Amino acid sequence: MVFKLNNHLLSMIASGNGHGEDSPYFEGWKAYDSNPHHPMENPNGIIQMGLAENQLCFDLIQDWLKNNPKASICTHEGVNEFREIAIFQDYHGLPEFRNAVAKFMAKVRGNKVTFDPDRVVMNGGATGAHETVAFCLADPGEAFLVPTPYYPGFDRDLRWRTGVKLIPVVSESSNNFKVTREALENAYEMAKLDNIKVKGLLINNPSNPLGTILDRETLRSIVRFINEKNIHLVCDEIYAATVFSQPEFISIAEIVQEDIECNLNLVHIVYSLSKDMGFPGLRVGIIYSYNDAVVSCARKMSSFGLVSSQTQYMIASMLSDDEFVGKFIRESKTRLAARHGVFTDGLAQVSIKCLKTSNAGLFLWMDLSGLLKEKTFEAEMALWRVIIHEVKLNVSPGCSFHCTEPGWFRVCFANMDDQTMQVALSRIRTFVNKDVDTKKPKRTLRWQGSLKLSSPRIYDDFINSPRSPLPQSPLVLARN
Amino acid sequence: MVTEIEQPTVELSKVAVSETHGEDSPYFAGWKAHDEDPYDESSNSSGVIQMGLAENQVSFDLLEEYLEQNSEASNWAEGAPGFRENALFQDYHGLKSFRQAMASFMEKIRGGRAKFDPDRIVLTAGATAANELLTFILADPDDALLVPTPYYPGFDRDLRWRTGVKIVPIHCDSSNDFQVTLEAMEAAYRHAVAMNIKVRGVLITNPSNPLGATIQRSVLEEILDFAKRNNIHVVSDEIYSGSTFSSSEFVSIAEILEARGYKDSERVHIVYSLSKDLGLPGFRVGTIYSYNDKVVTTARRMSSFSLISSQTQHLLASMLSDEKFTENYIKTNRERLRKRYEMIIQGLKTSGIECLKGNAGLFCWMNLSPLLETPTRKGELALWKSILHEVKINISPGSSCHCSEPGWFRVCFANMSEPTLEVALKRIHSFMDQRKTDAIQSPPQL
């Protein structure tokens, strides 16, 4: 059955493109969906490296579930609880769920802070949590500052139905994309000039897509800034447990506990189990606010996105198992560190650099600016299309994250097995070397060794060289 | 140690400080009274009996039986498709097997009289999310939806709070059993126009909450024609469709559309949920079924804010595709609800209380207008309070449902055991007896 479209009958929100799916970011997804890699069935398909999922520790989870059938109300062992749980739709959430989440959040932060279960508010994933916080804090037309580069989903989550604006706070590679006081002030002033009221600052710590954490000084500077301007601070900490090497993660919860002047009513944390535990399907989003009015309002709004009580019950059970949780967090960090290492080493072998300060997240922030024909976003998109269609990897171009410098790409590494990762690395090696070989076929190994030291410039030389490369080089396609 | 600074409070949003969440209504005082002194068969037999909660607890044993035989643990074992795939699945299209199971379940409930395409099913975390989402899609802030009174109090929040959309009531009264009439719809529409408000749609609940009755076929046809004439949407909230006491009495809007060859159906959208029919409100399973492609696409994207847990989708996909289970469940559930309804109607009758003739739902619509001191909202609230404190049952006053005639109350009968219902009926009987005695002893002054 085909039904006529009748667009003028729908709302402005529905008729616009605030859903964000017209962004080029999604082109890669479509390409992947139509030709997905599978080790046996489609070894030449596109490898998905645009999906920030944590798939490294499911064996631990599966073991736990096998040994704890009571965690499910849908098993013989747990069915006694079924009735009570199936009826439970109180937006306060199951007390044991809130307690377990509060404990887990503390543990992930090395127990350096504690969380009050009565401030834990559920929501439909971090997606729902962000939208709810925006509904609570800002009116249509008002704005949040967000440091670039940032997760593309924010454009939809914070703006689509709320009518709230996002104003970028620019960060640059010259200082490893740190958030500076100067950049915050600039963004704030720009908003003022445009007559836009800034209601808050949204930070993502650890950062997606950078894979870095904020240092203590930056966090303190941010806290001072929001207190001076009297605006809210929303801290998205959904990657908190993915910090796999030094320096240690510092949560905003720690900062506000220190001897620092801060109006606690301004501080709110968004959390989720989607990344740290690898459960995006379960839709467990959390708002943790130090502001009573926000807790109360967000809780009422959570009616629109409560966590299934079946899931609350299981999560409560799992996260109350201290031994399991400790083991999981430790093991997850170890495996992420290992993956990260193999990947960065593999990339370094072909002189591809990644943001060197990264020690967290499920991805790398890769610098391919040296491969660009020119330092423009058109060139970045052209290179990206080559990577998708020729190299057959779906990576995410920096422009989709609102990065102000062309040439950066986010590559996810935790959503595949070891074998697939090796395939991805070998494809990258082939791509890079093919280009090297086609440009200077008689180069010796000694020359290739020096490639590591000065890669961007050498690639520039190739591109500008009067010697025309062979037609089958992917770089040719990129230029054309 | 934090140094607290004396600061002017940063404002929250207008939405946050408004009272459109509706929780300050007197309606909630009843809940409070129950929470502070809840009835329990053994430990608190003089406590407040909750009859304000439209929950279906009569068929849990059927679900439990199914679960004993089809353990979730089988999904968690090694080798099976397993927990991993499930936990990773966050595609807003939803599990295909679940959508198919839902489509099939919705067809069964309608006795096969309408067909549902799984690809038109959009999944949301409960009907609460579905209704809000549809409103965001069909109307702009300050526009209005027409809603027949009396209606579910939650609509005030779900349709209006964050959307900024208004509700303009279509007034219905007891003279024709509270059925929607063309006159009433047109009056509501004119009223909106006079206030410079753009009407975007009509939202009906069928079977009706709080009436506990299905909407007649002729009325549905009239509503559709009215919508067409005014070029507006029709949202049909059919969350109680599986709770009709007999399958043949419920006519879904889907059936009407099928009879019309789906002509002009892109303005029609159905909301469904498993909270009432299956008694699983905690699982947050809602759906939007739209005949409009753009609405389906947009709703699907918007559902990102309120997806159904994949764990729950997986469980219910299995359960609802089990033909034997669903057929038996639908039949048995209807039967048990019908029995409960007859029990309460009979009990109320012997107490001298009349109810609207009902044929669906988890509640009945009780007429206590003869007992009002004054035929006003104030009189109704006073009566409600005395029922709460003397009879110790929490029922829902008609004014909380925006009923324009004072004296009607919604009483739920499916959220308790039969013995508890007996206790409630006994208390009501005593209360009514007492009032008769009082009336005899102190006749009205002439």
From TrEMBL, chain A:
PROSITE patterns: AA_TRANSFER_CLASS_1 (PS00105). Keywords: Ethylene biosynthesis, Fruit ripening, Lyase, Pyridoxal phosphate, S-adenosyl-L-methionine. It is an enzyme of class 4 (lyase). GO terms for biological process: ethylene biosynthetic process; fruit ripening. GO terms for molecular function: 1-aminocyclopropane-1-carboxylate synthase activity; pyridoxal phosphate binding; transaminase activity. Residues 47-428 form the Aminotransferase class I/classII large domain. This is 1-aminocyclopropane-1-carboxylate synthase. It comes from Salix dunnii. The lineage of its organism: Eukaryota, Viridiplantae, Streptophyta, Embryophyta, Tracheophyta.
TrEMBL record, chain B:
Keywords: Ethylene biosynthesis, Fruit ripening, Pyridoxal phosphate, S-adenosyl-L-methionine. Pathway: Alkene biosynthesis; ethylene biosynthesis via S-adenosyl-L-methionine; ethylene from S-adenosyl-L-methionine: step 1/2. It is an enzyme of class 4 (lyase). GO terms for biological process: ethylene biosynthetic process; fruit ripening. GO terms for molecular function: 1-aminocyclopropane-1-carboxylate synthase activity; pyridoxal phosphate binding; transaminase activity. Coiled coil: none annotated. Its EC number is 4.4.1.14. Residues 26-45 are annotated as: Disordered. InterPro entries: Aminotransferase_I/II_large (IPR004839), Ethylene_sulfur-biosynth (IPR050478), NHTrfase_class1_PyrdxlP-BS (IPR004838), PyrdxlP-dep_Trfase (IPR015424), PyrdxlP-dep_Trfase_major (IPR015421), PyrdxlP-dep_Trfase_small (IPR015422). The keyword DNA damage does not apply. Homodimer. Belongs to the class-I pyridoxal-phosphate-dependent aminotransferase family. This is 1-aminocyclopropane-1-carboxylate synthase.
